[in-house]
Amino acid sequence: MTSRMQSPHTTCPGCQEEVFLDELVGGKCPLCGCSLEEFDESFGEYEGILDRSDLSWLIFNYFVFKKFVDLGVSPHQIMEFIKTYEQNADAPPEEWTKTDFALEIPMTIWDQIMPKYCAKCKKLFFRGGKKSICGDIRRTQLTVLYACDRC
Predict the structure, then answer these.
(1) Confidence class of residue 118 from pLDDT cuts 50, 70 and 90?
(2) Nearest one of 55, 49, 10 to 31, comparing CA atoms
């Protein structure tokens, strides 16, 4: 609570409500849309807070994380994947070097009892092994692959 009270804030000239700088949307009050340009000029050190261009990136990360967690991927693997993707995101899409991924997921009961073909050695196996999902971040389709304990 104290960190919120210490963050920079002002009173909106349009609606006369207290507005925190980190709540501004494009330099405008989120309640009435009144521009706070004169306030922005006097507090130039907080420009990083006012910039909301990364909001879409945060939303993208949230949905990627949620989708993979729902599939059973460990959070550490997801964060490594997102970190790799962030490094490629700075370059234009034509220069992306790594957009494909492979993440290990746990086997369900059905996966454990059904016969599976190993993706590496193409042999049939019934017990053990690992299940993984593969795909490309530019496409929506996911491929499920199994690997036996020998590979």
Answers:
(1) very high
(2) 10
